[in-house]
UniProtKB/TrEMBL annotation:
<protein>
    <recommendedName>
        <fullName>Alpha-1,4 glucan phosphorylase</fullName>
        <ecNumber>2.4.1.1</ecNumber>
    </recommendedName>
</protein>
<keyword id="KW-0663">Pyridoxal phosphate</keyword>
<dbReference type="GO" id="GO:0008184">
    <property type="term" value="F:glycogen phosphorylase activity"/>
</dbReference>
<dbReference type="InterPro" id="IPR000811">
    <property type="entry name" value="Glyco_trans_35"/>
</dbReference>
<keyword id="KW-0119">Carbohydrate metabolism</keyword>
<keyword id="KW-0328">Glycosyltransferase</keyword>
<keyword id="KW-0808">Transferase</keyword>
<keyword id="KW-0321">Glycogen metabolism</keyword>
<dbReference type="InterPro" id="IPR011833">
    <property type="entry name" value="Glycg_phsphrylas"/>
</dbReference>
<comment type="subunit">
    <text>Homodimer; enzymatically active. Interacts with PPP1R3B; recruits the phosphatase PP1 which dephosphorylates and inactivates PYGL/glycogen phosphorylase.</text>
</comment>
<dbReference type="GO" id="GO:0030170">
    <property type="term" value="F:pyridoxal phosphate binding"/>
</dbReference>
<dbReference type="GO" id="GO:0005737">
    <property type="term" value="C:cytoplasm"/>
</dbReference>
<dbReference type="GO" id="GO:0005980">
    <property type="term" value="P:glycogen catabolic process"/>
</dbReference>
<comment type="function">
    <text>Allosteric enzyme that catalyzes the rate-limiting step in glycogen catabolism, the phosphorolytic cleavage of glycogen to produce glucose-1-phosphate, and plays a central role in maintaining cellular and organismal glucose homeostasis.</text>
</comment>
<comment type="similarity">
    <text>Belongs to the glycogen phosphorylase family.</text>
</comment>
<dbReference type="Pfam" id="PF00343">
    <property type="entry name" value="Phosphorylase"/>
</dbReference>
Length: 533
């Protein structure tokens, strides 16, 4: 047995000693676990089970092998008080999880052999898995690749998003025309997720702001519950399992029994329906007022529930004698880093300010220092007209306290601008968070830049254009904030999983380090002249 006292932190993580977790899973154990789940979890036998049942049994079997690693990963982070990287994104285009998880756990070959021994076809079982309806494009795929990469690097990373009931839509072609139908990806359940109702958060909307001796107070609000579901994100063969925490919206009182007994059956569940609309679909149509309001609700729902959860995690790592309001938050930026994936989560800046001032009792100066040092912003959009903006009238109706905070942020920021560019009215108009024309609205990209200590583009040319065109005047003001982070993809899903034959050829020539370090593929340049590989 290895003496753990002689191992460094990284080796300890790789030498997990949780019962039932072994480096190389045996076929017999997989078969036994598969049959156990078919019998006890799904209550089926081989005669009555369908391919979907077989997929569920296999998925639960694979998830069993995640469990010990999952628990130990968070024990490790907690014991080290590791800094948490919190990635906020409205999308996580994670795709199917079964094969990717087997590969990252190093049990793919054993699972293939076990399934074959039972007379089943692995490809048929894989095809039964629903594609997670959590994203629809490059923004979401980038977020998923980052989570995979950070888990493989052993970083204490947390994805925060929304658990959409129907994703965006399923496309069908009928008589040559596109027909959009709901993407019911959860209709058969999701074997990977774990509900965490004990960590439910309350999210507020509407109401008004009252001035008290203690400061501003947001009152008469409507409350929605945010229920978290955790989806595991395993690193590649390193025993690390991180988490994407996805929030589902629920009403505090989902059923009005009195109204139901009075015969108003639809009215009895109206509060539930209004609440659940928030996490119903990705990108609801915003061509009307209701759609715009729902989108803004979604964005605030994501940031409020996630920030409350981050503060809860942060305090959980503090000794009980340090849980006092002003002392407990001073090193928050040293323990939590928040990455905003585009402008959708930009409301995190005024929301963190609100939580620090209104809930934690900090001064404006302390709250701003913490917020600025904690937040970073990734921009995906070059066209100024495509940058997200919200009408002030809608913000005043839905989030009055946040509008108040945004106005104050803008006031202090413009004072800084005036000091650097005196008598330059045009520059003030260009840089203001509040645009006056054509309607009064909040420019969310400007808010994200002002409230973040780092701003990045997603390619060299993109970052260059941000500095020279889109945000030229911000770059002149804050050149130290702007940087580049070239987007990449995970070679594990997009090569090792997608094209195993090619992956085998590459590994034969240059070794397998490319699986964790994509730069190693440059070594293939040495083999361009080969006629055969």
């Amino acid at each position: 047995m290895t003496d753990n006292r002689l191992l460094d932190d990284d080796k300890k993580r790789k030498n997990i000693s949780i019962t039932g977790v072994a480096p190389n899973e045996q076929e017999e154990n997989i078969i036994n676990s598969f049959n156990k789940h078919l019998h006890f979890t799904l209550v089926k036998d081989r005669n009555s089970a369908t391919n979907r049942d077989f997929f569920q049994a296999l998925a639960h079997t694979v998830r069993d092998h995640l469990a010990g690693r999952w628990i130990r990963t968070y024990q490790h982070y907690y014991s080290r008080q590791a800094k948490g990287i919190c990635y906020l994104s409205l999308e996580f285009y994670i795709g199917r999880s079964l094969t990717n998880t087997m590969i990252n756990l190093g049990i793919k070959n054993s699972c293939d052999a076990a399934i074959a021994r039972m007379g089943l076809e692995m490809e048929e079982l894989q095809s039964m898995e629903e594609d997670a309806g959590l994203g629809n494009g490059g923004l979401g795929r980038l977020a998923a690749c980052f989570l995979d990469s950070m888990a493989t690097l052993g970083l204490a990373a947390y994805g925060y998003g929304i658990r959409y009931d129907y994703g965006i839509f399923t496309q069908k072609i009928v008589d040559g025309w596109q027909v959009e139908e709901p993407d019911e990806w959860l209709r058969f359940g999701n074997p990977w997720e774990v509900a965490r109702p004990e960590y439910v958060r309350k999210v507020q909307y509407y109401g008004n702001v009252e001035q008290t001796k203690e400061g501003s107070k947001w009152v008469n609000t409507q409350t929605i519950l945010a229920v978290p579901y955790d989806t595991p994100v395993p690193g590649y063969e390193n025993n690390v399992v991180n988490v994407a925490r996805l929030w589902s919206a629920k009403a505090p009182d989902c059923f009005n029994f009195k109204i139901f007994n009075d015969g108003a059956y639809l009215d009895a569940v109206i509060d539930r329906n209004i609440a659940e609309n928030i996490s119903m679909v990705l990108y609801p149509n915003d061509n009307n007022f209701e759609g715009k309001e729902l989108r803004l609700k979604q964005e605030y729902f994501l940031v409020s529930s996630s920030l409350q959860d981050m503060i809860r995690r942060y305090k959980a790592n503090k000794p009980a004698n340090l849980i006092c309001k002003k002392m407990v938050m001073t090193d928050f930026p040293d323990k939590i880093a928040i990455q905003l994936n585009d402008t959708h989560p930009a409301l995190a800046i005024p929301e963190l300010m609100r939580l620090l001032m209104d809930e934690e009792g900090l001064t404006w100066e302390m709250a701003w220092n913490i917020t600025f040092r904690t937040c970073s912003y990734t921009n995906h959009t070059l066209l100024p007209e495509a940058l997200e903006r919200w009408p002030v009238s809608l913000m005043q109706r839905l989030l009055p306290r946040h509008l108040q905070i945004i106005y104050l942020i803008n006031h202090y920021f413009l004072e800084e601008v005036k000091a650097k560019y005196p008598n330059n009215i045009q520059n003030i108009k260009r840089l203001s968070l509040v645009e006056e024309e054509p309607v009064k609205q909040i420019n969310m990209a400007h808010l994200a830049i002002v409230g973040s200590h780092a701003v990045n583009g997603v390619s060299k040319i993109h970052s260059h254009l941000l500095k020279t065109e889109t945000f030229k005047y911000f770059f002149e003001l804050f050149p130290e904030r702007f940087q580049n982070k070239t987007n990449g993809i995970t070679p594990r899903r997009w090569l090792l999983l997608s094209n195993p034959e090619l992956a085998e050829v590459i590994t034969y020539q240059i070794g397998d380090n490319w699986i964790k370090n994509l730069e190693d593929l440059r070594k293939l340049v040495n083999y361009f002249t080969l006629k055969k590989m």
